[in-house]
C-alpha cells in the first residue's frame, strides 16, 4: 500500500527554563484538539511526579513507552514504531532535547520526532532556549553551565509554529519556592545555579528574541526580501578546540543574516592521514559537528594555509571568513607571521571575522559538553539505602549486579537521589553483618561536579587512588559515575606527550609507528643538534685540563665512567620529578622538600657508586697491578668524584623542572638529555678539581 | 491582566481596578465582579482615572487597563501614563496593559502593517522603566503574515524592555554588563577606512539582529587637516545611518576603543584594514591585529580597504 503522506507539522512550546508551564500548556492544547475531534495520543510525557501534569494527561490515550535495558537499570523511551502503527493525527512528545538511552533505535528524541513527522504525524513538543545547539556558548556565558542535551538549530527552524510560554522570573522563583516544580530539597540546589533571578531574566530575554527570530524567518519564507548580494560565510576548521565555538557562532550569524554557511579545513601535511593522530581526531570531530549543524565541510591540502583558505573562499563565493583566535600564546617577535594575521593580509577583498574567545570568571569554555565529566560518566553503579543492614546491602548488590559491568563501590542515596555516603566492597564485606550501611559508609567521600574537566577528574582518580568517582548534578543529586576505565584513553593521550618530551624531542603527536620518517628525523634532529653543541663544551673543558691529563693518563681512563654516572643520575631525578609533577603530586612550593631529599639521596647514591668504583680499582690492582703505585689516591679520587658528580646530577636534574615551570615553560621539555649535557660539562670540572686536590704532590 | 489581579487578591494582596476600557467583554466582566473598582471620573464624557480617590484608598496594587489614553483638558495630567507615574511614586504597584501600536517608537511601523492610525501614545522611556513585562502571546495564524510581524515586534519590544531592566540591575549591583543576551555593534571610524561600506553592513546586519549600532573615533593630536575632515564626514554619515557616535580621547587608540567596547557591552567590532603591505606589517603585524588580540571577548570583523 503506497500512501502519499504529507510531512507532519511541528509545533514547539518554547520557554526559558523548566517550570514556565510548557508541558502544561501543551497538554491543555492537546485536550482542546481532542475535544474538537482530533485524534491525539501521548507519545512521551515526563510528569516528574507533578500532580497537575498527571491530571491533565488523564483521558488522553498514551502509547506505552519502550523499555531499554542498560547499565544500572532500565530506561523508558518513546516507542516510535508503536506510534506509527497506531497512526494518530497528533502526537504529544515532551522534552524534545532528550537523549535516548544507549540501545534505543535513535540517539536523540528529536530524531524520533523527525521519524514521526516523516510518517505524516503532527507533533506537539516542548523545549527550552538553552537546548538550542548554537546558543551553547551564550548560555554558558550567562549561566556557567554547559547543556549536554541539545537540539540542532535546523530542527527548531523547521518548526511550523513556535509558541513562547512565558511567566515572569519572579513568578517562576515563587513557583520554585512553593515546590511546584522540583521537590523542595532539590529546589534549594537548583536555586543556586540556574534559578537565580538575573540569570532567569537573561534567559528569558534570549528566549523571547529567539522566538521573534523564528517568526521572522518564517515571514521571510512567505515574503522573501533579498537585499544586496547574498552573504556566504566560510568557516576555517582547525584542530583547535575553539573551532566548535566558531561553528556554532557562524551557524547562528548565518541564520540571522539568511546567509549561506560552508566550512573548510586546510592542512599542510602531505596527506590528511599523515597528520598527527590527535590533530586528525580533533578535526574529524569538528567535521562531524559541522555536519550536524548542516554546515557542509571539505578538507584541503596546501603548503600555504592562509592563501589556500582565501582562494577557497573566492572560488566558492564566500563573502566572509570566520576564524578563531589561536589558542597558542602570540609569537612575540614576529606577530605578523601568525595565521590569523596572515589570513587578514591575504584576504584583500573579503571580510574576515575573528570570533570572540569568551571566558567566565577567568575560565574558557570546553569545546564540547562531552569533554566534561558529565560526558564520560555512565549509570552503571549500584545503590543501597543507608538504613539497610550490611547483609541486606550485599543481597541488594547481588540483585543489581547483573546490570552493572564493574563494581567497586556502592553508593548510599536518599529518596531524592542525594548522595549520603560511599562504601567500598572491601569495607562492606569486612563489616559486621548486622550493622547498618549508615554506620560503616564514608561520608567524607570525593565527588566531581558534572561540568568538571575530564583531565581534572583523571588527576583526582590517580591522586586519591580511586577506581571510580561519583558525579553530582548542580542540584546535588547523583547522576552517574566516572570510572578509571572511562578515563583510560584520556590519561594515555596526555601521558604520551609528556614522555616524548622527556626523551628530548618535540611531542610526536601521533602513535610511534604512524609518524613518517621525515617527521621523525625532523622532530629529533633539532634537539640532538642543540645538545650536541652543548656537549662541545666538554671539549673546551678537557682542553683546559689537558696538562693534568698529560701528567696523569690514568685519569682519562675513568673520564667516561664519571661523567656518564652524573648524566644518568640527573636523568633519573628529572624523570621522577616530571612524573610527579604531571600527576599533580608536586607543586612549585615543594621545591625545597625535593632538594633536601635529593641531596641526601645524591650523597647515598654517590657513596654506593663510589664504593663500587673503589672496589673495582682495588680488585684490578691486586689482580693485574694496572694503576701503578699511587692506586690508593686514584681510588680515593674516583670515589670522591663520583659522590660529587652524582650529588650534582640529582640536584640539577630535580631542580631543572621547577626552574622551567617557574619560567613558564613546560617542565616536560626539561628533557633528560638536556640534564645529561649539563651534568657532563660540570661533572668534568668536578672530576678534575677533585683530582688536582687529591693528587697534588703525587701524580700531578 | 485582570486574571492576575484576581490571583493576587486570592493570595491576600490588596487589589483595586483603577481604569477600565469603555467596552467590557463578558469574560472580563466576570473577573471584574470579584474585584474592587475605584470608579472613574467623567470629564466631557471621557472617562478619566480618579487618581485622587486611588491615592486616598491607597491599595497595594492598582490595575490600569489601557495605559495610552489621553486625559481631556482640565485634568490633573494630560496623559494616563503620567497618572500612573503619580501612583508609582506614592508606592502603589501598577499593573497596566497596552497595545503595541500605542508605543511611540513602534507606531509608525505598526501603521505600515495595519494601515490604521492611532493618536495617543506612551513614551518608550516610560515603558523601559517597567519592572516586569509580559507579552500576551497568541500564536499567529500563518495565513495572516501581518499578524506574525506584529507579534514579532511585540516580542522584540519586550526583549528590549527586559534588557533595560537587566542593565539597571547590573548597574545597581555593580556587575559587569551581562554578555550573551543580545548583540551590539561598534564601528571604528578612521580617516581612511571605508566608513560607508562598514556602516551599510552594520545597519543591514543590525536590522537582522535587531540591535544597536555604535560608532566611535579616537581623536589624535597629529592628524592632518585632510584626515580631520574625512573623520568628520564619516561621523556625519554614521549619524545619518542612525548610529550613536562618540568621540573618544586617549593616548593609545586601540586600548581606548577596546575599553569603550567593553563598557558598552559590544559584541562585534567593525574595523577597516589597509591592504597595503610592507615587510614591517608582514613581520610585526599592524594595528588591526593588535585590536584583534586586545578585544578577546568580542568578534572583530575586518573590512579591507
Main features:
heterodimer; A: 700 residues; alpha/beta; Rossmann fold; CBS-domain; 4 domains; five-stranded parallel sheet; 19 strands; 51% helix; B: 305 residues; 12 helices; 11 strands
Q: What is the mean pLDDT of chain A?
A: 81
Strand content of chain B: 15-25%
- Pattern of helices and strands of chain B: HEHEEEHEHEHHHEHEHEHEHHE
Number of domains of chain B: 2
Report on the biggest sheet of chain A. 6 strands, parallel
Low-confidence stretches of chain B: none
Radius of gyration of chain B (CA) equals: 25 Å
What's the CATH superfamily of the largest domain in chain A, by name? Answer: P-loop containing nucleotide triphosphate hydrolases
Q: What's the pLDDT, averaged over the residues of chain B?
A: 85
Please estimate the helix content of chain B: 40-55%
Walk me through this protein's architecture:
The complex is a heterodimer of chains A (700) and B (305). Chain A has 700 residues and is α/β, with parallel strands linked by helices. Chain A has 25 helices and 19 strands. The mean pLDDT of chain B is 85. Chain B is elongated. The longest helix of chain B is centred in the middle third of the chain and has 28 residues, at 145-172. Chain B has 2 domains: 2-172, P-loop containing nucleotide triphosphate hydrolases (Rossmann fold, 3-Layer(aba) Sandwich); 184-304, HUPs (Rossmann fold), CATH 3.40.50. Strand 13 of chain A pairs antiparallel with strand 11 of chain B, so a sheet runs across the interface.
Topology record:
The complex is a heterodimer of chains A (700) and B (305).
Chain A: E1 10-15, H1 22-35, E2 40-44, H2 51-57, E3 61-62, E4 66-70, E5 73-77, H3 80-86, E6 90-93, H4 109-118, E7 122-128, H5 136-143, H6 153-158, E8 161-164, H7 169-177, H8 184-193, H9 197-223, E9 232-236, H10 243-257, E10 260-267, H11 277-292, E11 297-301, H12 305-315, E12 320-324, H13 339-346, E13 351-355, H14 373-376, E14 382-384, H15 390-400, E15 409-413, E16 419-424, H16 425-430, H17 437-440, E17 448-449, H18 454-464, E18 468-472, E19 478-483, H19 484-502, H20 517-544, H21 546-551, H22 553-582, H23 591-624, H24 631-662, H25 672-695
Parallel strand pairs in A: 1-7, 1-8, 2-3, 2-6, 6-7, 9-10, 9-12, 10-11, 12-13, 14-15, 17-18
Antiparallel strand pairs in A: 4-5, 15-16, 18-19
Helix pairs in contact in A: 1-2, 12-13, 18-19, 20-25, 22-24, 22-25, 23-24, 24-25
Chain B: H1 2-10, E1 15-19, H2 26-32, E2 36-37, E3 41-43, E4 46-48, H3 51-57, E5 61-64, H4 80-89, E6 93-96, H5 107-114, H6 124-128, H7 145-172, E7 184-188, H8 195-209, E8 212-219, H9 225-240, E9 244-249, H10 253-263, E10 268-273, H11 279-284, H12 287-294, E11 299-304
Parallel strand pairs in B: 1-2, 1-5, 5-6, 7-8, 7-10, 8-9, 10-11
Antiparallel strand pairs in B: 3-4
Amino acid at each position: 500500500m503506497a500512501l502519499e503522506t504529507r510531512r507532519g507539522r511541528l509545533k514547539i512550546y518554547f520557554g526559558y527554563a523548566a517550570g514556565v508551564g510548557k508541558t502544561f500548556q501543551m497538554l491543555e492544547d492537546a485536550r482542546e484538539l481532542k475535544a474538537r475531534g482530533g485524534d491525539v495520543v501521548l507519545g512521551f510525557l515526563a510528569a516528574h511526579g507533578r500532580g497537575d501534569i498527571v491530571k491533565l494527561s488523564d483521558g488522553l490515550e498514551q502509547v506505552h513507552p519502550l523499555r531499554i535495558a542498560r547499565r544500572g537499570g532500565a530506561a523508558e523511551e518513546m516507542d516510535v514504531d508503536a506510534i506509527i502503527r497506531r497512526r494518530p493525527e497528533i502526537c504529544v512528545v515532551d522534552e524534545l532535547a532528550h537523549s535516548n538511552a544507549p540501545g534505543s533505535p535513535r540517539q536523540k528524541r528529536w530524531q524520533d520526532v523527525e521519524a514521526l513527522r516523516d510518517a505524516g504525524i503532527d507533533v506537539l513538543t516542548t523545549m527550552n532556549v538553552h537546548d538550542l545547539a548554537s546558543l551553547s556558548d551564550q548560555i554558558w556565558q550567562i549561566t556557567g553551565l554547559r547543556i549536554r542535551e541539545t537540539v540542532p538549530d535546523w530542527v527548531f527552524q523547521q518548526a511550523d509554529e513556535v509558541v513562547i510560554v512565558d511567566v515572569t522570573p519572579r513568578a517562576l522563583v515563587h513557583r520554585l519556592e512553593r515546590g511546584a516544580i522540583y521537590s523542595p530539597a532539590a529546589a534549594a540546589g537548583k536555586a543556586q545555579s540556574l534559578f537565580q533571578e538575573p540569570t532567569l531574566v537573561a534567559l528569558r530575554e534570549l528566549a523571547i528574541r529567539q522566538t521573534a527570530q523564528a517568526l521572522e524567518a518564517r515571514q521571510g519564507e512567505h515574503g522573501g526580501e533579498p537585499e544586496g548580494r547574498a552573504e556566504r560565510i566560510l568557516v576555517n576548521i582547525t584542530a583547535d578546540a575553539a573551532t566548535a565555538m566558531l561553528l556554532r557562532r557562524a551557524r547562528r550569524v548565518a541564520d540571522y543574516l539568511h546567509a549561506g554557511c560552508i566550512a573548510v579545513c586546510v592542512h599542510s601535511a602531505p596527506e590528511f592521514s599523515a597528520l598527527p593522530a590527535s590533530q586528525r581526531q580533533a578535526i574529524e570531530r569538528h567535521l562531524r559537528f559541522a555536519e550536524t549543524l548542516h554546515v557542509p565541510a571539505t578538507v584541503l591540502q596546501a603548503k600555504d594555509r592562509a592563501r589556500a583558505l582565501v582562494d577557497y573562499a573566492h572560488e566558492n563565493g564566500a563573502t566572509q571568513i570566520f576564524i578563531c583566535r589561536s589558542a597558542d600564546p602570540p609569537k612575540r617577535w614576529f606577530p605578523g607571521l601568525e595565521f590569523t594575521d596572515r589570513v587578514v593580509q591575504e584576504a584583500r577583498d573579503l571580510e574576515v571575522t575573528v570570533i570572540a574567545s569568551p571566558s567566565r570568571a577567568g575560565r574558557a569554555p570546553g569545546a564540547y559538553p562531552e569533554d566534561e565529566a558529565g560526558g564520560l560518566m555512565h549509570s552503571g553503579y549500584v545503590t543501597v539505602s543507608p538504613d539497610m543492614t550490611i547483609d541486606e546491602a550485599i543481597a541488594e548488590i547481588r540483585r543489581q549486579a547483573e546490570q552493572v559491568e564493574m563494581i567497586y563501590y556502592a553508593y548510599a542515596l536518599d529518596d531524592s537521589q542525594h548522595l549520603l555516603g560511599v562504601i567500598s566492597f572491601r569495607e562492606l564485606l569486612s563489616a559486621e553483618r548486622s550493622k547498618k550501611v549508615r554506620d560503616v559508609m564514608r561520608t567524607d567521600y570525593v565527588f566531581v561536579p558534572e561540568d568538571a574537566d575530564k583531565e581534572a577528574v583523571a588527576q583526582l582518580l590517580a591522586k586519591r587512588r580511586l577506581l571510580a568517582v561519583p558525579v553530582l548534578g548542580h542540584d546535588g543529586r547523583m547522576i552517574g559515575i566516572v570510572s578509571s576505565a572511562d578515563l583510560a584513553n584520556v590519561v594515555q593521550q596526555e601521558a604520551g606527550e609528556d614522555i616524548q618530551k622527556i626523551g628530548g624531542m618535540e611531542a610526536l603527536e601521533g602513535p610511534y609507528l604512524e609518524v613518517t620518517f621525515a617527521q621523525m628525523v625532523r622532530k629529533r634532529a633539532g634537539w640532538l643538534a642543540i645538545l650536541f653543541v652543548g656537549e662541545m663544551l666538554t671539549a673546551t673543558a678537557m682542553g683546559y685540563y689537558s696538562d693534568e691529563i698529560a701528567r696523569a693518563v690514568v685519569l682519562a681512563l675513568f673520564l667516561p665512567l664519571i661523567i656518564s654516572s652524573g648524566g644518568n643520575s640527573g636523568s633519573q631525578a628529572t624523570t621522577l620529578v616530571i612524573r610527579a609533577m604531571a600527576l599533580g603530586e608536586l607543586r612549585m612550593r615543594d621545591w625545597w622538600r625535593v632538594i633536601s631529599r635529593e641531596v641526601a639521596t645524591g650523597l647515598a647514591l654517590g657513596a654506593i657508586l663510589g664504593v663500587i668504583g673503589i672496589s673495582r680499582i682495588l680488585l684490578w690492582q691486586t689482580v693485574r697491578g694496572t694503576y701503578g703505585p699511587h692506586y690508593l689516591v686514584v681510588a680515593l679520587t674516583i670515589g670522591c668524584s663520583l659522590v660529587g658528580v652524582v650529588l650534582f646530577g640529582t640536584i640539577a636534574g630535580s631542580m631543572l623542572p621547577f626552574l622551567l615551570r617557574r619560567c613558564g615553560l613546560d617542565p616536560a621539555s626539561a628533557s633528560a638529555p638536556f640534564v645529561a649535557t649539563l651534568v657532563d660539562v660540570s661533572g668534568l670540572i668536578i672530576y678534575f678539581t677533585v683530582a688536582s686536590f687529591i693528587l697534588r704532590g703525587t701524580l700531578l | 491582566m485582570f486574571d492576575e489581579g484576581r490571583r493576587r487578591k486570592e493570595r491576600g494582596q490588596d487589589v483595586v481596578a483603577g481604569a477600565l476600557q469603555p467596552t467590557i467583554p463578558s469574560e472580563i466582566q466576570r473577573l471584574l465582579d470579584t474585584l474592587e473598582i475605584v470608579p472613574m471620573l467623567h470629564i466631557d464624557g471621557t472617562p478619566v482615572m480618579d487618581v485622587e480617590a486611588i491615592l486616598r484608598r491607597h491599595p497595594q496594587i492598582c490595575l490600569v487597563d489601557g495605559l495610552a489614553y489621553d486625559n481631556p483638558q482640565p485634568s490633573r495630567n494630560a496623559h494616563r501614563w503620567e497618572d500612573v507615574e503619580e501612583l508609582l511614586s506614592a508606592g502603589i504597584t501598577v499593573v497596566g496593559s497596552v497595545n503595541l501600536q500605542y508605543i511611540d517608537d513602534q507606531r509608525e511601523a505598526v501603521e505600515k502593517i495595519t494601515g490604521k492610525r492611532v493618536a495617543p501614545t506612551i513614551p518608550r522611556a516610560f515603558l523601559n522603566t517597567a519592572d516586569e513585562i509580559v507579552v500576551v502571546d497568541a500564536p499567529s495564524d500563518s495565513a495572516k503574515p501581518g499578524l506574525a510581524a506584529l507579534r514579532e515586534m511585540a516580542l522584540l519590544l519586550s526583549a528590549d524592555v527586559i534588557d533595560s531592566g537587566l542593565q539597571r540591575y547590573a548597574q545597581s549591583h555593580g556587575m559587569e554588563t551581562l554578555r550573551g543576551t543580545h548583540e551590539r555593534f561598534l564601528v571604528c571610524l578612521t580617516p581612511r577606512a571605508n566608513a560607508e561600506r562598514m556602516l551599510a553592513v552594520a545597519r543591514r546586519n543590525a536590522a537582522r539582529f535587531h540591535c544597536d549600532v555604535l560608532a566611535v573615533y579616537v581623536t589624535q593630536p597629529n592628524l592632518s587637516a585632510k584626515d580631520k575632515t574625512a573623520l568628520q564626514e564619516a561621523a556625519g554619515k554614521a549619524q545619518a545611518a542612525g548610529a550613536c557616535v562618540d568621540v573618544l580621547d586617549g593616548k593609545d587608540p586601540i586600548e581606548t576603543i577596546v575599553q569603550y567596547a567593553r563598557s558598552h557591552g559590544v559584541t562585534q567590532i567593525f574595523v577597516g584594514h589597509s591592504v597595503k603591505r610592507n615587510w614591517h606589517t608582514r613581520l610585526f603585524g599592524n594595528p588591526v591585529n593588535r585590536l584583534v588580540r586586545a578585544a578577546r571577548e568580542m568578534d572583530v570583523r575586518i573590512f579591507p580597504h
